[in-house]
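We treat protein structure as text, and this decision shapes the records that our systems exchange. The tokens are whole numbers drawn from a learned vocabulary of local backbone shapes. One such record is reproduced below, unchanged from the form in which we store it:
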Amino acid sequence: MRDAPTPPAPTHLDPAELRTLDAHWRAANYLSVGQIYLMANPLLTEPLRPEHIKPRLLGHWGTSPGLNLVHTHLNRVIKARGLEALCVWGPGHGGPAVLANSWLDGTYGETYPDVGRDRAGMERLFRQFSFPGGVPSHVAPETPGSLHEGGELGYSLAHAYGAAFDNPQLLVACVIGDGEAETGPLAASWHATKFLDPVHDGAVLPILHLNGYKIANPAVLARIPHDELDALLRGYGHDPLYVVGNDPATVHDALAAAMDRALDRIGDIQRRARSAGETDRPHWPVIVLRTPKGWTGPHEVDGLPVEGTWRAHQVPLTGVRDHADHRHQLEAWLRSYRPEELFDASGAPLPDVLACVPEGSRRLGASPHANGGLLLQDLPVPPLERHAVDVAKPGAVLHEPTRVLGGMLRAVMAATAERRDFRVVGPDETASNRLEALYEATGKDWQAETVGSDEHLARDGRVMEVLSEHLCQGWLEGYLLTGRHGLFSCYEAFAHIVDSMVNQHIKWLRTSRRIPWRRPVASLNYLLTSHVWRQDHNGFSHQDPGFIDHILNKSPEVVRVYLPPDANTLLSVADHALRSRDYVNVIVAGKQPCFDWLTLDEARAHCARGAGVWPWAGTEDGGSGPDVVLACAGDVPTQETLAAAGLLRRHLPELAVRVVNVVDMARLLPAGAHPHGMPDSEYDALFTPDKPVIFAYHGYPWLIHRLSYRRTGHRHLHVRGYKEEGTTTTPFDMVVRNDLDRYRLVMDAVDRVPGLGVRALAVRQAMADARTRHHAWIREHGTDLPEVADWTWTG
């Protein structure tokens, strides 16, 4: 603790309240230690023997005393003030503490009746922790009152703000570990104060817990001078309150005083904004809590200091079954909490322990906001007929698909104006991605300074733009998990920034689906646009379609990937995604002008199938089947495929060509590998078991091979896609560089249809010549060949 302020003498709490708060905290600490070590003898009714100890000691003690302290004091203010509250527990493996407090407030036993508040329930609580068939060592979906996976650090504060948006009565406390505070996402999350509207949003109370160490190293914010830390937090827009010490009575009193001051300040901010119309951006309170790592645990083990050092991080005493001295030290540690003053002979908590605990849904373990499906309302998505484009014939008219979608999103935003449960997030790209129609229904959330040249900024806006994909993701996750709806619009290449975050969300959803008391929440919907094939102006740095691969590696029951080829299919896919529950939906669609291929009814039918033949695009007569299948997925690959089909129709009219378009990428998987997977019989009927398939795909070509490698006709499959050949160039040159262009697709057909190579040599040469002309043309004119730029479907 460097240059920290001297704590005040205890004056805030009366002796009775101090006694009951300390009893609750000691009980939670006792239960936390018991979970790490014990599988029997939970009340220490006899001396500890080896068989009482778990054979494998797993868990994290170091952060638990601090989390227990915060939980105890949150109970106090929630009960005293009648608050509607939620807590996000940031420190990674703080599971023992949150489980202990859930058991104490009764929510754990209500959720899992075999783990009630008695001796048998306590023994089950201890035994199941980090035990085969039990519960994880971190805060997880199985934990009542949780909405944040504690296994990966950095996201707690963003989740907390997401939970607070459009929840005006909610207090969201967020405990941030000093290790977590070193991560990039958490560092950016302090800026969320510039987006929190005190009128329409709830409040976030960050509690920065500085216990000094990570696993084996000091924590940065715990080792900088107090003045520097204070300046940092004030610079972020916070008003810090400090609680420092290692004497329990002093710290209890100081933390109670700090929480009361913080909540008084929050109440004053909200009253002035809501009643007096004050619009100045407030400095919201933050509590900085400095207590020793592993506080109240062993001071020393085997001659080495433990409490207050990195050695307290996980299991301070090891080998307890076989090491009698360690076992005696563990027993002394447990008895130091005086369990006989905390639990009666049956194992039930005594009245002093429960004096601070709120009732009913006020308990942190029972908050409906931590089980957002309980609060979720259906989203009022408008009839698509109001927004669909007219398609008199395929490929005659162009629209910008995302601009068409923007009209539908505007209607959703307008329809939720009163209930405020829909937001669109993105990194400074809403207008760039052609979704600016949203601004007709709402502005961009902004609480900081404004100047005359600003456009569409609004304190109550529900479009959220910040140039941090981490914040966008974290805000939206917190918003969805607390029972609301949303969409994340992003340039395709930079969705990778949140790869790890979406991993954790997918794991959360997968686990939650298997927990009966968890109610389904709205899906996490990505709109990836400004995609690889139309980043010709920004160049190689902006070209990466690999987010699809990343998502399709994940749990099949949760992930969905859609590549709508035009405006009406995008509307149909978006309608489905916005109405869905418990999925991660990835939609990849272009913002540049794109040909309209399908009417709305045709688009709906095609999207329902997920993959299908476009008979009007091919030349097979329906009798003997095709000679070659031209398959495609994605808007640009679809256009190149249809252009190739047109060339084959003109140059090789006798060739029977089938055109297949895929919207739902999971359809390529076998039926047993994904809920949307295609049975082999259906796949063979669509793609044939023995004819060459030339597949033009939006992303990396090996994904198609991976999805379809078990199919009968896989050896006949040839995939063209992005192969890391990117630069700043013309739109058509991007597909030529990656061999996805129409001319190469025709050459592939000639090469792979048996016997065609010799008969169609002149056609193949003409296609190669066209590619050569293309290279010369763009270098002279800087634009694409007129025959490409002016192409329309005439089949």
Observations:
- The two ends are 76 Å apart (CA to CA).
